[in-house]
Amino acid sequence: MINLLLAACSTPKPNEVAWKNAPDLKIEEYFLGPTKAYGIVEDRWGKLRKSFTVDMNGYYEGEQFILDEHFAYSDGTTERRLWRITKLDDLSYTGVAEGVIGKAVGKRFGNVLNWQYDLTIQVGERPVTVHFDDWMYQMNDRVLLNRARFSKFGFEVGSVTLAFEKPDSPKAP
Fold first, then answer.
1. Cβ atoms within 10 A of the Cβ of 138, count?
2. What whole-number distance in Å separates Cα of residue 108 and Cα of residue 87?
3. Residue 15 has pLDDT above 80, yes or no
4. Rounded to whole angstroms, what are the CA distances from 167 to 12, 57, 72, 117, 135?
5. What is the predicted pLDDT for the residue at 155?
6. What is the pLDDT of residue 168?
7. Chain-centre distance of CA 36, in angstroms?
8. How far, in Å, CA of 78 to CA of 8, rounded?
9. pLDDT by residue (tens digit) across 93-142?
10. Residue 172's Cα: distance from chain center in Å?
11. Cα(72)–Cα(82) distance, rounded to whole angstroms?
């Protein structure tokens, strides 16, 4: 019984959730060039806290992939996050960005990518560091879905859901 409970509570592995007939998710290819995203932030009870859009542009600086994100929130605030992503091998990535504590670590399998990282966010007037368990699912060449849960001291405190859309799919050099 304990094993069943532990299995029910464990985080899936990318190879357990990837499906056949979907394009391989290679973030350095999918996010190359312009991308638009639409998202929502919910609290731990599922209450909508805010919605947002993101205009992104991905490009290379040498061997490093840069993802420049510009957020516009429904409360009128804006935010910019500049990710510097390093591909370690065909299945693994690391990334750094302002607000990320240490490095984000990403693993992919097929059309799925899982990012794990700690991020400092503003809650009212104070900064709070939360852990992100971020899952991306490439649906086709143009659409990618993202579900991220964030936690503090091991307790889920909210989630972010995004839909990414590509105007086209340029290929990496």
1. 24
2. 11
3. no
4. 31, 12, 19, 28, 22
5. 93
6. 65
7. 14
8. 37
9. 999 999 999 999 999 988 999 999 999 988 778 899 999 999 999 999 89
10. 20
11. 15
Specify the pLDDT at position 8. 41
Residue 123 falls inside a structural domain: yes
Number of domains in the chain: 1
Q: How far apart are CA 56 and CA 65, in angstroms?
A: 13
4 in any annotated domain: no
> Which residues make Cβ contacts (< 8 Å) with residue 149, sequence separation at least 6?
132, 133, 156, 158, 159
Look at residue 65 and tell me if it is in a domain. yes
Tell me the CB-side half-sphere exposure of residue 55, using CA atoms within 13 A.
3
> What's the distance, CA 23 to chain centroid?
18
Percent of the chain topping pLDDT 70: 84
Identify the CATH number of the domain in which residue 58 sits. 2.40.128.20
> What is the DSSP pairing of strand 48-61 with strand 155-165?
unpaired
Strands 92-96 and 78-87: antiparallel
Establish if 58 belongs to a structural domain: yes
Amino acid at 18: A
Say how far apart CA 126 and CA 121 lie, in whole Å: 8
Range of the domain at 63: 19-165
> Which among 121, 152, 128, 141 is positioned nearest to 52, based on CA atoms?
121
